[in-house]
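FAQ: What does the model actually see?

It sees only this:
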Amino acid sequence: MADVENPPPPKPSEPAQALKAPKKGGVVARKLTVNELEWVKRFDFLEQAGYRLRPRYKPGWEPSWKLGETSLNHEDSIFLDTPKLIDATRLSDGMTVMLKCIPDDTEEAAIGLYLSSEELRQDPRNHAAPILAVLRDPSDTDYAIVVMPLLRRVDAPLPQSVREAVEFVDQLLEGMAFMHEHQIAHRDSAWGNVMMDGRRIFPGGWHPQSPELRPDGKHVLPDTPSSRTSVGGVRYYFIDFGISSRGLDSVTGADGQEEAPELSATKPYNPFKLDVYVLGMAFHHFLLKTHGRLEFMQPLVDYMTPEDPNTRPSIVEVVIRFQEIRSKLTKKDLSQRLTPNELEPKWTRLWNDLLYLALIFLSPPATLKSSPTELVYRCAKGSSTTFPLPEITAAPKVSLSVIVPAFNETLRLKPMLTAAITHLSSLPASSKRTFEIIVVDDCSKDATTSTALEFAKQNPKIDIRVVTFARNRGKGGAVQHGVLHCRGERVLMVDADGASKFSDLEKLWVCLDEVESGENGVAVGSRAHMVNSEAVVKRSFLRNCLMYAFHALLRTVGVSYIHDTQCGFKLFTRSSARVLFQSLHLHGWVFDVELLLLAQRLDIPVVEVPIEWQEIDGSKMSLMRDSINMGKDVLLLRANYTIGRWRAVDDERSKKN
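And it is asked to produce this:
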């Protein structure tokens, strides 16, 4: 992209640094380069093979922006960063892949295919970037095109904790040991040839040629993305087997990113001992040279990098030495924040460390483990008979799931459920809308569960499911549990007090139809239009002051685009409900705010819909105590997302291609 200055590929001796936001300005790339024209020639062949290049490389392409106009909002202005490497869309499933053009007379494709064979790919120790296919253009027999998944540089973002650095070392040692076990020497395992599967950190994706941008090529990714730990870890891969060898104990060649002492075009050397040296130097450049608190790694690097290859250990010996070092690290050691070696003054470092540990201590866990009794439901068939709850990852079975969180709602639950089934049962048959109602009792102290079951027995033709928590989780935890175990194509969360007019569901339904994009969308019921209504005016002065203070605090989080975040009447598509509620960390009153923040970050369309609402007596909210907790949760929300500890986690991220 002429208006975006792409960072050059890292050199092994350069310290790691995170990708920066694109710089604006420059000459607009209205003409294809010589290397790009080579890919234009392959466009039709690749299309027939099942891979589509971006519009820029379609024969006859004309820039989508006018001469003299900025190209910033035009994806087709992004040009190739590496001549022999281009991105494409796999037509069979829409997956973004990378195509690499390599000489057909090298071992790169053969070694890659061997490591990608079904048997070896099933081995979790295999950290070679998988080859999905090898294409050969009949009109260009000198080259082959290797198809690989889209991966991301390991310094974008940088690791943030000792645990993440240790995991990086662990995976790469494991991967190299696996290759050596199969008589494959990489010979160029510098840190620039190590990539990661970044889908956990960036579930919304990134642009293949400008990885600091979103897939649309227009918007910049967050400056503070998720940490590896906060998304459950990432997987690392070795790439570029262009000079690799298989079954050879002695080789020649001076190529490689790391200037190892034995490299020679004429004098033979052991490629496996070379691998140990180059990987040790990768740890030095990527981790030890730029970060503090990794001093315990220095003996391992020294062990791997003697000048004399004959004194170097085998990779198996290195793995054993590393396991000894790791076994001595405590949980406290692993949880330490990685610190820059030179940039942070002593007192600044101490302060940042204290804040980091305090944040970990105060923040709730991302998920709460459910007891066996919480993974079953009861219904009209009997209070003692239980049935297993389904998972939201399964295919939908009904049109709508209604999720009702309930805590001590004996008095208010029946009227609300009556309003719900009255409306849903009155819909015309032509709508063909099937539904289920899931009541989640958040460990009530009254007869909420028995009230719900009694109502279910009185309405046996209605699919009403009752889940009872063994311990209180909070309103957000109850809604999350119900959503993650529902069967609906769309999911409605509604408060048990019946304050929202249930028939306004149809307003949300129509508006969601209008904004839904790619099976994603959220319709938010709103009371913002009632700000001057009698219901609000009659509230106490203190309650209104707290309401306005909370709205001011929300602006610091970045969800001010929604005027009423707290209305308990929201409709989700199944796809959006899955990714949003699987990523939810807050389980108290502020969980709605996190849902909307996640939707914003994932570009899920959200529409705010005015609904009818009335104040209902019997609120379980303590004005002062819960207001303080809400303020605290908003601050935790902002802090965790700012430093990247929290982010959306899509369950599809871990599937292998």
